[in-house]
Amino acid sequence: MTKRILFAAxxxxxxxxxxxxxxxxxxxxxxxxNSYDSEVILPLYRSIAREEYSILPIGEPFILRxxxxxxxxxxxxxxxxGIVYRFVYSPLLCDRExxxxxxxxxxxxxxxxxGLFSYAIMALLKEEQYAIVHLNDWQCALVALxxxxxxxxxxxxxxxxxxxxxxxxxxxxxxxxxxxxxxxFTHDTLEFYGKVNFMKAGIAYANTITTVSPTYxxxxxTPEAGCGLEGFLQCxxxxxxxxxxxxxxxxFSPTSDRALVAPYTNVKGKKPSKSDLLKQLGLKGVTKPLxxxxxxxxSQKGVDLLIETLPKIAAMECxxxxxxxxxxxxxxxxxxxxxxQPNIRMTFGYEESFAHRMYAAADFLLMPSLFEPCGLNQMxxxxxxxxxxxxxxxxxxxSVERFETYTHESSEGYGxxxxxxxxxxxxxxxxxSCDLYKDxxxxxxxxxxNMQCDFSWDQSAKSYITLYDSLTIGEIV
Length: 477
Ligand code: GLC
What we know:
By secondary structure, the chain is an alpha/beta fold. The protein is built from 18 helices and 19 strands. It folds into 2 domains: 4-246 and 458-472, 3-Layer(aba) Sandwich (Rossmann fold); 267-452, Rossmann fold, CATH 3.40.50. The longest helix has 18 residues, at 110-127. The structure holds alpha-D-glucopyranose.
């Protein structure tokens, strides 16, 4: 019999998405195919269209006791494209405008909200037999502690860090509300500079830990990228592995993408998409290189570098299109820059099909991230024949080779790589990109080569399956 695995995440595409976690939670469970019978669990946020996906209640509402309070919880479910999804509904967790809060500030009661999500996952683990529960980011991290504490639950736990910069930090008083004993408020458990750190629960108590690229797995052991947890991670490094994410190559496929004006199989076929986007944005010059940025306007994504460099990039013969949302301060600064540049456009917000059209139209994707655990956009860019311009860090270092070293026999994807996150390096990289664009033959060769590269989950899913197998046959205890 195929073993069952429960994949728990606070966001899953297409139901709820703010970042790459949602894409991974969508595509990894599918990639496990016949090896594991995967189910996915997430909160039933108010924004999720219940009718569209035929999401229906499973059983009766029930009471979950957490701390001294009784919470009423309902489980819902649906099957979507062959995968079973389970949803946790409680007004406290789900009836909000945003998933976690605004870009500036998380909701004050997030500890209790995601504590409750974790208790609901635990209730399911008690009721159904899962060999493994795969937990993602701080929102589900407490489950590792709850399983560790409950001798009746034999499910093995795997914890994935998608981004160490978001750890789930709360006042010490939340422990009582979470029904977690004070004995867990120590340096080697959940305490972190006087606060409670959810991520520490995942790191300390999961049977095994992964992060989303091999380079990031090394970087987080250092003070530069460890976000204060480097020492703690070093204590647990024996159970830490870096596995590069993949992308869903059916979802991100220019040959069959229904969001595009004209599907295509090679770089020449991008023309209609480029003309269409330029027209839509009111930009001129199909023969000029088009640079795009798609991502959250947060420091991690190198937005400061971008803001400083944009006027100089705009002075070159090119067009620039930005898509994203995020911190107010960045939005305002970007607006300030763009006002004065006739060849830059910014679209605020995030719409999946518009993002697809941008990848299809783009010649280059700007990705100057200061740090990047994995990054999926560079892989999507490869698939759509847009050449990524990246800072060599984290998953970008593991997935983008320097175009100067291009050989057509290689199976790697190529881009324009810079090594220090400074405005000067970014600007030089963009200049190099403009030169590459002028060398039409090489540009086309590299784009076509990248489009053929395999960034599907096939390889990485195998690595996860090996880890799951070693957990279930008791090699990792
Ligand atoms: C986070 C990281 C990103 C990664 C994604 C999926 O959003 O910032 O680098 O690709 O999670 O793992």
